[in-house]
Amino acid sequence: MTTFYLLDVPENTSVAKVAAEDPAVTVGQVGPYFEIHAESTIVIDRRATGCRHAVWYSCVAGVARDSRITQHDKNALRVEPA
Fold it and tell me: Which domain of life is it from (predicted)?
């Protein structure tokens, strides 16, 4: 399983929205965070989110113990099962 968290602030809403467009991904809430979860790899294209680079690089608040970020560059965020 793959899970990561984004702080639920207006700047990060588009990231959660793009993640939710993938039918294999579930976006929920845990306290003040979006919880983004899938059974396998999650990939979010930065351009699809419309985020500027500063927001993009600061959007991830945490990663679940069983997940790891394998790509976080100007093109995409990829979180995979550990």
Answer: Bacteria
